[in-house]
Amino acid sequence: MNAKQQIAEILENSGDEYISGSAIADSLGITRAAVWKCIKQMEEDGYEIESSKKGYRLGSSSDALSTSCIRKYLGDSAKRFSLEVFDVIDSTNTYLKQRAHKYLSSQDGKAVWHVAVSDRQNNGRGRMGRSFVSPSGSGIYLSVLFKPQTDARQAVSITTAAAVAACIAIEECTDKNPLIKWVNDVFIDGRKTCGILTEASVDLESGGLEWAVLGIGFNVYMPKDGFPEEIKDIAGPITEKRIRDLRSRISASFLTHLYEICNTPDASGFKDEYRRRCFLIGRPINVIRGEQLIPAHATGLDDELHLLVRYPDGTTEALNSGEVSVREQK
């Protein structure tokens, strides 16, 4: 770690206690002037730092993402993950996909999950080739690379597991009650706060997955300039008020629960949780196929969490992928 990262870790671990500049300088073997310069750089990075004659401490709404802070909240489960945190990146999914074979081949039998988290993305991606708005200081843009114990036909279970893990993480860290819009969106108070994109490489001989990259974006706060015009009526933040370490706590909670769900042999528990949170069931919807909107009624979810729909002519279908929207009743 460089000096700035070391100072961030010192302040993150100090809680509400002030740490003097001289104490920081002595512990790192640098000058007080170098400490002051790092503090200013940290403030530019989004840290809220309070200073007094006693020294420095993080403010109550300081919420900059860092490796040390996420690891602190991961606790004993931190050993399960190889974690990289970036100020800015092209795309966390793209970064891990490009390194998938290298990372997984170097594990020496250890089932470590590789995680990339960024404060901002220049080319964030959503499903169906859409862009995912990823401004700095307001969201969590996180991807996980791992080798799933499932075949390609059941790959949708990775996305649904992530949706449940995201809901649990948000509930653990805030007072919000998130719901799921099949298949991969998390909503709070009627607004989309989280989107998920799963990409994978298939072994054509075995039908299994060589690796999967699960990407998730959380809209934690309202962006400084607001959401873009095209999504301002759809997207929303998890919370309006900045909360100390909230983004690191949500990241750690999400990773912990996703790991537990994906490594539990009996998947019935998380599937029941997904069904409980899926707000489409019993509602009129549109099945979206290209430019066509096909009216239907969402009747339930099957054992693989495919969406069961009934069309006006009485025919039924189990959707295993695709897009749907809520249809307003007249």
Can you summarize this structure?
By secondary structure, the chain is an alpha+beta fold.
Describe this structure in words.
The protein is an alpha+beta fold and 330 residues long. It folds into 3 domains: 3-58, Winged helix-like DNA-binding domain superfamily/Winged helix DNA-binding domain (Arc Repressor Mutant, subunit A), CATH 1.10.10; 67-277, Bira Bifunctional Protein, Domain 2 (BirA Bifunctional Protein, domain 2, 2-Layer Sandwich), CATH 3.30.930; 284-326, SH3 type barrels, CATH 2.30.30. Helices cover 30% and strands 26% of the residues. The protein is built from 9 helices and 14 strands. It has a 7-stranded mixed β-sheet, with helices on both faces. A hairpin with a 2-residue loop joins strand 1 and strand 2. The chain is globular and about 75 Å long. The mean pLDDT is 90.
Shape: globular
Report the biggest beta sheet as strand number plus sense, adding barrel if it closes: 7 strands, mixed
Instruction: Please mark out the parts with pLDDT under 50 across 5 or more consecutive residues, or reply none.
Output: none
Remind me, CATH topology of the largest domain? BirA Bifunctional Protein, domain 2
> What is the CA-based Rg, rounded?
22 Å
The count of helical stretches stands at 9
Helix residue percentage: 25-40%
The rounded distance between the terminal residues' Cα atoms is 59 Å
- What is the CATH architecture term of the largest domain? 2-Layer Sandwich
How many distinct domains?
3
* Residues in β-strands, percent: 25-35%
